[in-house]
Structure formats: structure tokens, C-alpha cells
Amino acid sequence: MSKVNKEIQVLSDFEHILARPTIYVGSVKTSEEQVPLVEKGGSVKSHSKPISVGMYKLFDEVFSNCVDEAKRMKSPMEKIVVEIESKTNKVSITDFGDGFLNGSKKNKKSGLSNVETAVSMLRAGSNFDNDGIEESIIGTNGMGVSLVNALSSFFEIETTNSEETYVQSWDNFKSSNPRIEKIEGKNKGTRVSFVPISKIFDGNKWDKEILRSMLVLKKRVLETEKKTESVGIEFIWDGNTEQISSSLSPGFSFKSSIGEVLIWQKTELTSSFSFVNSAICTGIHQKIVMDKINQELEDSLGHHFYDMLLILNLPPGLVRFGDQNKTKFVSKREDVEGTISRNFDGAIYKFFKSDLFKEIKKAVDERRRDTEMKKIRKEKKSVKIKFSHKYFPPTTSKADNLFIVEGLSAMGSILQKR
Hints:
418 residues
């Protein structure tokens, strides 16, 4: 039996991230998880895959930074490029934004450049005071990309603004000296490249099918907001390029000013998913919409007969997540129900008149009738009635039930248990 260590230890931020990565990015070991996969026909199905949840969180953190940049720009961003080198597990994600503002300038508090501060220090970011804005900014905690850096064996950032290009890399969180070049006519934007630490993430490799499906859904999310609806996504896997399309095939869909709802009739492999400010999560927002549909179906379990993709883009002041990983939306029902109802009630009423709803209602009603019939049969079996055309059955001197009928026809009905 090993001896319990009782000595007090003090870890740096970096040491704590390596020692307890699950706190920051979720489970890092391989586990069977239900993930949404977009089929060729445009349906979204839930499949079980062995993955490291935390490793995909790293991808999501960097991609989310690109989306936030697109939302902050005055003019539309052209595209976001995702490139994977499957042999090395290297990811490069590039946005065509405005680059880091004052990237090479020294930050007064950290003493490092603004770029190095943003990507190597926890609790460093530009969104802490943005609760009052209307844009549905994703990164609000100042943790994301610094965690990616700390949990990568290699990390590099290259960012170009209107004046200069700034490049800096890290090997196992040890930084190199930055390279700064004055530029003329070079495209602005930021590229982040990283290789997750294999030992921490259980030797996991990127799954092409999962990443592609993530990007299809992300593209659909981008198209629900005016500032990002035209942003393209380019997916490069080992040199092969694909332009990502958001084409899905729901039985019903409706866009509002704060997002979109898509509904399918449930099958064995389909499942419900939702996004709040580009973070895939579960929460009260789903229940608010399902309660309205289930009420019309007159069945509190009506959601067992349909699946839904709900996309919400909410002001930061309304958004609360249960953890850094943003897997649980924990804003109070009373804080968001009014906003959701104002924007989606019209869509839900249209859904009630659709052919899809009629099919779902039919399935719900059939299930209800089947349940009622099973209950009747069960109760019938539990009732002890003995049938005989004699006054008393020969097996007992006292009848439990006595039927007095007029005529042989009526007696025949009783004998046939009708």
C-alpha cells in the first residue's frame, strides 16, 4: 500500500493544467462517446465513437476564436481554413480577420507582448467586459487558447494586422523569441497550429468523420447570424481540400433573429443536439422548446418521437455555462424563456401545421393506445371471473361473479368472454 502524501504543494498554472487537465478541458482519456455525425443525405445521427473529449475541446477553442474574430469585424470575413496532418496529429486553423490589435506591443501587466500574453497566460483576454453587447461572443473566460498551448507539444501563432506579421512558437510550453516583420500587401489574419500532447490525450488521433461533421454543424451555426452567414469553411485533410456545406435534411426548419430550429422524426440512430453561442451543450433552452411541442402532442414524453437541432445566438449577458467546457447551459429559465418564446413561438406554431408534426402526433397517439390496451389486458388477467352456463360452477360452491341473462344469445356472449 502506497504512503499518502500530506505535504502541501504549490503548482504554477502550467503545472496544474498538466496535473489536472480534466478540470479545464473535460475527460482526456479515451472513452466511448455519442457524437453527432452528418450523413451524406444530410441527416444528423448519433454514433458511439472512442475519443478523447478533451482533445476535441482544444480544436473547438481555437475554432471559436476565429468565429469571435468574424463577429468583431466591420466587414465580412471571407473564410476559416482548417488543416489536419493526420500522421503528426497537427492542426492548423486560420482566420482571415484583422489580426491581433497591437500584437507586438508590450502588455503593461504581464510585461510580455499582447500576443504572448493572450496565448500563454490564463485569465487573459478581451471579452471580460462584454456582457452588455448584443453579439453572441463565444470566448468570455480568458482561458481557451492558453489551455491549448499548455496541453500541446508544439504550438505556434502567426498573426498579421495592417502593419506587421508576428510569429511565435512554443515547444512543451517553452517559448521561442518572436519574429516580427513589417509587411506590405500581405493578407491579414491569424493562424494557430498545435499538436496535442499524445501522452495526456491517450495517444488519440483526429477522426476525419467527426471533424467534418463538427464543421458542417459549425457552418450551419455561422449561417444563423448576419455577421457570419457568408463565412466559408475550408477543410484540408492531408492535402485534400473540401469546401464545407451546411446542407442538412430536416423534416422542418425555421430561422429566427436569434438562431434556428431543425426537427426530424426520431429513428434508432438520431438524437437531439443544440448550440448556444457556438458551444454544443444541453440545458433548459432545449426543455423550453420541447415543453411547447409536447404540450401540443398531449404527451410529456412526446420528445421520444422527434429529434431537434436547436441553435441559439444570445447576448453574453444572458449566457451562463456550468463549466469551462461549456457542455451545460445553466442560465435560469426565467432569464431566457421570454427571448426564446418571442423568437421561436411562430416557428413552433408553423411546425404544428406541418406534415411532420402530423406523423409524429400519429405515432404518439398509437403509442398511447398501445399502452392503454396493454393496461386493459393486464387488468383483465387480474380479474378472477369464472364462466359457466350453470347456476354455479362445479368447482366452487359459491360464485365470485353471477351473471343473469335473458336468452341463449346473451348467454353466448358471456361464455365467449365478450
